[in-house]
Design goal:
Order of helices and strands: HEEEEEEEHEEEEEEE
Largest sheet: 7 strands, antiparallel
Oligomer: single chain
Strand order of the largest sheet: 13-8-9-10-11-12-14
Strand content: 35-45%
Structural class: mainly beta
Number of strands: 14
Shape: globular
Length: 262
């Protein structure tokens, strides 16, 4: 079922959302500013042009020769710990037990060439109502990542049933980090006009016995669609839609074609 709203309000709200998304990715120290991803070992070593020497083990990351020797403790799967290096920020992350450094540089050539996020024109036909059914107990769904060898572990809280393309569909929903639901999915546009690994859809908390709105106009790219230095998940196999969802954000780097970033 397609939800109905005032067209002018609908398009204006989408425009505000789209502008906010472009501002987020255009941040001088955001995702598009990344210039490198470097995996650490348990031996001290210099890393690219970064100051000091770095090593990591199961307990932490150790830095010597860069100001005062120090230790930082990144958390598995969480946003990284930022270490200042002049205008740059060195982000220390832990993924599937391994530790890496990501470099955010406001002078990044990627940031200078960033011109926004291509997207389909918003259309009410892609805003549909569905029904959320929670699992009796949440369960962990493990997916791969765009970096070979890494895994992501998601808390699946239920399924959303809806109709699209004249047929019944179902998607597994994860718990959103700030409330609501999050859905990672692919569809027939993935790897053609949209990023191949996954797009993300935020869904507000269910109301009236599980009613939710899936507004595919706000299907969002993950950071890995913008940079080779992200470690994003791929969509779970259960969330592959056989129809072309010609709504939401397109692939900002279409030359990637069917390949995922590293």
């Amino acid at each position: 079922m397609t939800s109905t709203v005032n067209v002018d309000t609908f398009e204006a709200a989408w425009g505000d959302w789209h502008t906010e998304r472009e501002n987020y990715y255009g941040d001088p120290l955001g995702w598009v500013s990344l210039t490198g991803l470097y995996w650490l070992t348990d031996e001290f070593e210099t890393v690219a042009d970064l100051p000091g020497r770095w090593r990591a083990d199961a307990d932490g990351v150790y830095i010597e020769g860069f100001g005062e020797n120090t230790t930082v403790e990144p958390i598995e799967g969480a946003p990284g710990i930022l270490v200042e290096d002049g205008d740059r920020r060195i982000e220390v992350i832990r993924r599937t037990g391994s530790v890496a450094l990501r470099v955010h540089d406001p002078k990044s050539p990627h940031l200078k060439s960033f011109t926004g996020i291509p997207a389909y024109a918003p259309s009410e036909q892609w805003s549909v109502t569905g029904t959320f059914t929670s699992f009796e107990e949440s369960k962990i769904v493990t997916t791969g990542a765009v970096v070979e060898g890494l895994e992501h572990h998601h808390t699946a809280v239920g399924v959303v049933d809806f109709e699209l393309g004249g047929e019944a569909r179902q998607l597994v929903a994860f718990g959103g980090k700030s409330g609501g639901l999050q859905i990672l999915f692919t569809d027939a546009t993935s790897g053609v006009t949209t990023y191949p690994a996954a797009r993300s859809l935020a869904v507000a908390d269910p109301v009236d016995g599980g009613s939710v709105v899936l507004d595919f106009n706000r299907a969002s790219n993950l950071p890995c669609s913008f940079t080779d230095y992200a470690t994003c998940p791929v969509a779970p196999a259960e969330n592959k839609l056989p129809v072309a969802v010609e709504a939401g954000e397109k692939n900002p780097r279409p030359n990637l074609g069917q390949e995922t970033s590293k």
